[in-house]
Amino acid sequence: MNPVEAHYDRDPQREWERLERHRTEFAVTCLALEEHLPSPPGVILDVGAGPGRYALHLARQGYRVVLVDLSRRSLDLALEMAAQAGIYLPPPVHADARALPAEYDEQFDAVLLMGPLYHLMTAEDRTTAVREAWRVLRPGGYIFAAFITRYAPLRDLANHSPEWILEHPDRFRALLEDGLNPAYESSAFPDSYFAHPDDILPLMAEGGFETRALLGCEGIIAGHEEMVNDLAGEAWTAWVSLNYRLGREPSLYGAADHLLYVGVRPAAPYQDDLMATG
Asked: Could you read off the pLDDT of 251-274 as tens digits, one per residue?
């Protein structure tokens, strides 16, 4: 079994609960979806959907969301959560982001790619996944691609294992210079790639996309989110709004744990334009 598949099969409930613990990441991402998605109805492909947090959110709004994931147990949990909420989800697809079903050519109004790029260790594989998303999008369709930032694991190490950078100098060097953290025997996370903010737009352009936005999903509070995530009412709304605004600030990209890229597959030229230039 693919090690990434095995990791997410092990405890899909934990991944479901992760976005309860990190409410700001979820809320800011949902605002980006709201701003850029066409109005429902529309058909969305959620690649690396996990247990379906974003799929259920979008299905409630009237979108038809097809889930794709490596983890069968995550897809089973997504269907279970949807049934409990009285939400219909089409049969999910067990597949790899690098090889989506051939019949999906230009079938979707939007693609979510929120997870697969965390675990693709080569530039070739990342480009393949991005180009697969391009292939299945209709011209004019949107992609929402998530990245874990280069410095997010270092902040985590500072909080939990500060001696690690001395105990594992080669791994530290690979992480800092290339964003690569291959799994080893005692790893809690499978092979992982942490993107430098400057590498994201070139990758997505190579995949054929035009950029519409890049934002830090935690805004300004990465690593300092606990009290904000416990808020409710007007205070919660105010902090979500602030972090959505500050998430667009390029000087803060490296200070976020997750970056969200929003792009579009360019629409085909109008026939009149083709005739005029022919």
From this structure: 999 999 999 999 999 987 543 344
| Nearest residue to 218 (alpha-carbon basis) of 25, 21, 54, 27 | 25
Structure tokens at 90: 């089409």
Assessment of whether the complete model's pTM goes beyond 0.90: yes
Residues in the chain with pLDDT values less than 50: 270-278
**Partners of 93 in the β-ladder:** 68
pLDDT of residue 269: 56
pLDDT by residue (tens digit) across 62-88? 999 999 999 999 999 999 999 999 999
